[in-house]
Amino acid sequence: QWDRLLSSGHAVWGYGTDDTHRDTDVGVAWTVVQTTDRTPNAVLAALAAGRCYVSTGVTIETIESSARTITVETADAEAIRLVADHGTVHRTVDAAAATFNLDRDLRADTNATYVRIECFGAGDQMAWTQPCFLDTSSG
Predict the structure, then answer these.
(1) CA distance 83 to 53
(2) CA–CA gap between residue 139 and residue 125 (Å, rounded)
(3) What is this structure's pTM?
(4) Per-residue pLDDT tens over the stretch 37-60
(5) Can you tell me the distance from the alpha carbon of 33 to that of 29, in angstroms, rounded to the nearest whole number?
(6) Closest CA to 59 of 35, 32, 28, 83
């Protein structure tokens, strides 16, 4: 559903929460927020700006991006993949860290408008970054 919205031009952030109906549902998914100030206003501002990622167990330690490169370092991922429009996987790296060069790793025939990163850990553990929207006007 998220990729469908993003691919339709809706710039929406992803969040993770538990759908708690039983005790075993607690702590299944959460949102990690990037902020140095733990006040409610700072947390809400970070969420609104997309300075967060979703996890079900994988810890992202670093996310860095430049104009055409994205680097992700995790504590415990076993595979990291680059995803673009319509949920299309463009590259998978079997490691706890990966650097994606968008000029090399995005297939040119897809005309991607955004990319995001999925990190896979042990079992069902995952983490998802927010989408990075691409400037498609310059090619």
Answers:
(1) 15
(2) 35
(3) 0.90
(4) 999 999 999 999 999 999 999 999
(5) 13
(6) 32
* Token pair of 116 as six digits: 């995001």
46 HSE (CA, 13 A, CB side)? 17
Residue pLDDT, tens place only, 91-136: 999 999 999 999 999 988 888 999 999 999 999 999 999 999 997 6
Q: Is there a contact between 122 and 85 (Cβ–Cβ < 8 Å)?
A: no
At residue 26, φ and ψ (nearest 5 deg) are: -80, 135
- Cα–Cα distances in angstroms (integers) from residue 132 to residues 13, 34, 36, 88, 128, in the given order: 10, 16, 22, 15, 12
CA dihedral angle for residue 111, residue 71, residue 66, residue 117, rounded to 10 degrees: 40
Sort strands 60-65 and 132-133 into parallel, antiparallel or unpaired.
Answer: unpaired
- Tokens for 56, please give them: 């079900």
pLDDT of 138 higher than 60: no
Matching residue, tokens 């860095």: 64
